[in-house]
Amino acid sequence: MGMKHFNPTTPSLRNTTVSDFSEITKKTPEKSLLTVKKEKAGRNSYGRITVRHQGGGNRQKYRMIDFKRQKEDMPATVIGIEYDPNRSANIALIQYEDGTKSYILAPIGLKDGDTVVSGANADIKPGNCMKLENIPVGTMIHNIEINPGQGGKLVRAAGQEAQLMAKEGKFANLRLPSGEMRLIMLNCRATIGTVGNSDHENIKLGKAGKTRHLGKRPEVRGSAMNPVDHPHGGGEGKAPVGHAGPMTPWGKPALGYKTRKNTRTDKFIAKRRK
């Protein structure tokens, strides 16, 4: 996969880079695997904005991805690689021998006509899924379950991969993309390979309008507000934030402040990402 650059015929095109979509082999989605995606614009069930700066954007349908891969030992053929507007990674449409179709995350190296399978006897090749106890140490994996049978939760973004570092007792030790070393139960599933579309991080939107297409609304700087609206607000001219460090609109520390509250699973973190 590569990047497409444009002649600078307009100021926005001068700074725009997009994917050349060379991995994409299927242009239209599978209708049976589409569902409605309601626009919430950051509002909860009471109609109150709980996540700011969201709304608008291009209309999207949700693609139902099979993160569980529970059809054991049934080969599936890759029909095509598709674009998914709901995630940074591309997705692959596969068809099982019984005729069932489903979407999976497309790893690097997966092509039309390839066969993927889930189960203990599967080969160690991109797209195949199995429990961590059946994967050799040192293998790069993605779409990793946290609890058995729950479906993949970790390492699903474009270009990401985790490495299986060791197995000890009931647990496998994984190095996640953040650098964190984490213990995951050996009977959790993972998919072999690295998530595709690795050039996604090199895309430059180039203009404000593309951000609006993604459903993101403008974000006003706190220092441009009044004191009643933000802790950074007020002052004559350009004023510093006036605090020991930057703050959120609700007065909490904004940078370097630990927000993790789930101490119940701290015992599974062998080494922090920092």
Note down, in words, how this protein is organized.
This protein is mainly beta and 274 residues long. It has one domain (3-201, 263-271): Beta Barrel (OB fold (Dihydrolipoamide Acetyltransferase, E2P)), CATH 2.40.50.140. The protein has 2 helices and 17 strands. The strands form 5 sheets. It has a 7-stranded antiparallel β-sheet with strand order 9-16-10-13-14-15-17, with no helix packed on it. It is globular.
| Fourth-level CATH superfamily | Nucleic acid-binding proteins
Distance between the first and last residues' Cα: 32 Å
| Poorly predicted sequence stretches spanning 5 or more consecutive residues | none
Order of helices and strands: EHEEEEEEEEEEEEEEEHE
The top-level CATH class is: Mainly Beta
Per DSSP E runs of 2 or more residues, the count of β-strands stands at: 17
CATH architecture: Beta Barrel
Shape: globular
What do we call the CATH topology?
OB fold (Dihydrolipoamide Acetyltransferase, E2P)
Order of strands, widest sheet = 9-16-10-13-14-15-17
Secondary structure class reads mainly beta
Q: Using the CA coordinates, give the radius of gyration.
A: 22 Å
DSSP strand (E) fraction?
Answer: 15-25%
Arithmetic mean pLDDT = 91
How many domains in all? 1
Profile the largest sheet: 7 strands, antiparallel
- How much helix, percentage-wise, in residues? under 10%
Count of runs of 4 or more consecutive helical residues: 2
